[in-house]
Fold Metal dependent phosphohydrolase.
Amino acid sequence: MRKNRILIPIEDLYPGLVVAEPFFDSNGVVVIGEGIILNSKIISKLNEKYPAKSMSVLDEYLDEIFMSKENKKQKIIDAEIKLSNVSNGIKSIMNDIERKKRPSIKLVTGMSVQLMESFKDYNLALEGILRERPVDEYTQRHCVNVAILSIMLGRWLFLSDNEILLLAQSALLHDIGKVKINSNILNKPSKLSPIEFEAIKKHSIIGYSIAKEIPNIDTCVPLGILMHHEKIDGSGYPLGLSNDKIHIFGKIIAIADIFDAMTSTRPYHSRQSPFSVLEMMQHEFWGKIDTFCLSTFVKNMSMYYEGEIVRLSNGKLGQIVKMNPSRLSAPLVMVGEDFIDLSVENYITVSELVSFPIDT
């Protein structure tokens, strides 16, 4: 059985083949993403528009090419165990802080290295990040998720390995100041009063004060903690910094923080689909979050959702064929052999990504 990628003329494609790498048109625009399973309708459209081109594909023996369901399940379980271990490490650090004990930089570094080495497969990372978790584990798991997302964005921005290691440390610790905030305020299901919001805003400075006292910590790590709620237009907190006065770690962690918070269930809001969140970030935070960092994040994140299975608002399951750069919440979806352009069919939306079921 064939297992390698092969280049096949469009006219010779047949149903069951799997797209091995993104297929581009003459303008460099992705027409169809990696991992899409070709059917007769897709092939017909390709023959109509690109008869002279070829496509890199895998073959129809999907269980020979992709890992079996059991292997995939085991990979996800292993990843979930690693995420839980790091999450427990964050919980341990927060317990130490409550006991007025300084966190260990050795522990923080070890967790950062584990995340950097274990989640180079971004699809696996996103599977874990978007998995629902108990509300009482939110803060520590949020810190882990923000660290993974920050690592991903740091790599997309071509930071050095050492910079990414320090970024991961800063992201893991970005919310440690919340240990000193009343939990009733943190978990309040209704709108915060002005006094309560001012109390919440103190967590950045509190976290900075705690982190800078950790022996042998690099000076840039506390800065990311301090500045992850700053905005480039000066409207953020706690210092009201703008543009280049905000450390790059603060800019990166801000983006990861928003994405994970909005795609998570909280006492005061339901989780949103990553597509809606990416679109919201693209529009509502433009001019507030560093433009280059934000556009890099949105562009790269959207690419990883092509080929993923989603549940639509009409209850049907579909596969994302192509993201829509101008409307990220409305991708082109294949349901059976039918294409649904959600930017045209406005009454249908993406409800959620379908996670692989696991039982740990």
